[in-house]
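Table S7 (text form). Paired inputs.
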Amino acid sequence: MKSNLIVKALTLSEKLRHVFIATADGTGLPHMAAAGKIKRISDDRISIEAWFCPGTVENLNQNNRISIVVWEPDPDQGYQLTGKVEKVEELAILNGFSHGIESMHPIPQVERKLIVHVEKTFSFTHAPHNDFE
């Protein structure tokens, strides 16, 4: 794992304020989601916070593997981090008393934080690139 790429990915996610994550269920069916920026916990651990959809959470209950992509289209520069989700923490629960929330169907009910052990890091671009670390 290239620790310097984690630092670059963190810096880019801070600028963009979003990342994309990919999970898969127990049969390998993939699912994509967007989340907020990533934060560094230690050399090889990061956290991601979002109101993750139920599909993402269910996938992680069956298969803890994850891929995170931080990518800026212009100048076509980004990073991919792959690893395992070690922990899913609940941060907030929707209380159902927000006016107008009923019109936003379906909405996630729980904000969560994913603690991820990063195992591999790669550069990520739209242009041809190498997926080897």
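Next pair, protein 2 of 2.
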Amino acid sequence: MAYISLPEDLPGIRGLMNYRPETAQPLNQLVDVLLQKPSSLGKGERELIASYVSSLNKCKYCSNTHGAVAKHHLGDGEIVEQVKANNIDTASVSSKVKALLNIAGKVQRSGRSVTEKDIEKARKEGATDKELHDTVLIAASFCMFNRYVDGLGTSAPDDPEVYDQIGAYRAENGYQAPNNEIK
């Protein structure tokens, strides 16, 4: 049960967005820019970073939701499960994405954990400054989102089908589409 009065039929951040629409709008704009707008990193890769950081933070709702969105973009749920299980080295993603996931994991612990060596390794694998920037911002943002969701004790469904439905909807419609259209 959430620590504040939230609609029971809107789990995770969906209930919080419903509770404070005026804060939901800029948060959804940020997520839409980071995860959905055109970028040299694919939508699935960016969602994978969000899911990975959320799994490191043990945020069930965000990890499962963004994992499901990543699955719909990538067409492969196994990659998502490998990354969420912290098996980055054997995951079926590019060396560049592996290097960026490493950086995201370090940001999750502390921004100061990222080293020049980490950045150079990612650059060697082809990461651009914008990709480095966006990886760090996605990781930092999801640390905030995870703390927001879990800090207010929101609910997280156990049924994987719920996350799959949310993932399909967000993959198709982005994050500025209304929450109430997701069943």
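The chain is about 65% helix and 0% strand.
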